[in-house]
Amino acid sequence: MVRTLTLAALCLLPFARHLDAQVIRSYESLDRDAGEAWYLTLGLGVDGQAGNTEQVEVDFSAAVGFRGERHWIRLYPAYTYTRTNGETSDFERAAHLRHNYFLTDRTRTFAFMQLQADRSLDLDRRFLVGGGLRRRLVQAGQEQGLDLGAGLMWEEESIVGGIREEQLRVTSMLVASLAAGAVRVTLSGFFQPKVDEWGDHRVSSSAAAAVPIAAGWDLSLGLDWRRDSRPPADVEADDLDFTIGVRFALN
Q1: What tens digit of pLDDT does each residue of 146-174 get?
Q2: Global pTM value
Q3: Which one of 115, 132, 180, 218 is most buried, by most CB atoms within 10 A?
Q4: Helix, strand, coil abundance in the chain, percent, nearest 5
């Protein structure tokens, strides 16, 4: 049994400007820290300002899971809290449960449930449940390759103001796991249109890199872009974030 404990202390920096949109969360970079059997990954981010604007933002994320010969199950909790000039301006809470069953070395099913709330997006509650198939198209070493996945998900949303929607969406992904020497890079993209109206869709892409700086320590870099074709009123369509920090791993 291999137990992995990863502690990330992240210093968050704004890239361009922080925009508000419906967020598709990507957990692919957390999965690259998964060992065999039980593992745990913890992340903590802090961003602050002082002077004309006093603001503090705290972001916590984690992954706890079990990976066996055929089954791989994990839970990803996440929490983001922002306080501006002494008042809580926005916060996000999310929990994502995911299971994979390996049909072959290169093909696996995926099934998931997610519960999310985000004040900055006027999102009181979002519940997702779905599943599909994921196939490794290109295998380049044990941890490198290109994956394609597709499936369906049911979405239930409650927006501030009493608006409630239910819909069926396609969920598709393209994920590349790369390495340049000791540097590990994960690139992922998601496309989630409504089944009966593809003009109503969400798109996201992200890039994450882990650069070794000492024994057990990595410099972590991340860039995320997301777009909702039809966001709620007073919420912008695009979301762009850049993160930088350090990560410590103990095996």
Answers
A1: 999 999 999 998 887 778 889 999 999 99
A2: 0.75
A3: 218
A4: 5, 75, 25
